[in-house]
């Protein structure tokens, strides 16, 4: 479940990045020189939708992050029996027995 929530957080973060890049900057910045002051064919409420979608995605990322922390804490508090690593000591290596090497007959 933790991995599933992490994947959802990454997808939401990518969507949030795309939404922020689509929005017009309000302070001017670099985009002010290229933007026209008059939108002829633009939708009047597009900026409101993008802003609401941005805040919604931020809330989703926060909620998913809190849920992921809860699942991760539950996973770390698992009984020690499951997470215990048993290490067997390897027996000392014995030297290989020396076998006579047969020479090929000529």
SSE diagram, text form:
Blueprint: H1 2-22, H2 46-76, H3 80-83
Counting helices, strands and paired strands, the structural category is mainly alpha
- Topology, number of strands: 0
Give the overall shape.
elongated
Distance between the termini: 70 Å
**DSSP helix count?**
3
N-to-C order of helices and strands: HHH
Radius of gyration: 31 Å
Share of β-strand residues? under 5%
Main sheet characteristics: none
Mean pLDDT: 74
Low-confidence stretches: none
Helix content class: 40-55%
Summarize the structure.
The protein has helices at residues 2-22, 46-76, 80-83. With 106 residues, it is mostly helical.
Structure description:
The chain is mainly alpha-helical and 106 residues long. The protein has a domain at 1-24 and 47-74. It has three helices and no strands. Helix 1 (2-22) packs antiparallel against helix 2. The mean pLDDT is 74.
Quick tags:
single chain; mainly alpha; 106 residues
């Amino acid at each position: 479940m933790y991995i599933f929530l992490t994947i959802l957080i990454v997808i939401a973060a990518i969507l949030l990045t795309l939404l922020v890049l689509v929005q017009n900057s309000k302070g001017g910045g670099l985009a002010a020189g290229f933007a026209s002051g008059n939108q002829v064919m633009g939708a009047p409420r597009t900026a409101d939708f993008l802003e609401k979608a941005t805040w919604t995605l931020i809330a989703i990322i926060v909620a998913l992050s809190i849920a992921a922390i809860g699942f991760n804490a539950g996973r770390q508090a698992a009984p020690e029996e499951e997470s215990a690593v048993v290490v067997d000591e390897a027996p000392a290596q014995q030297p290989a027995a020396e076998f006579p090497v047969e020479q090929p007959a000529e």
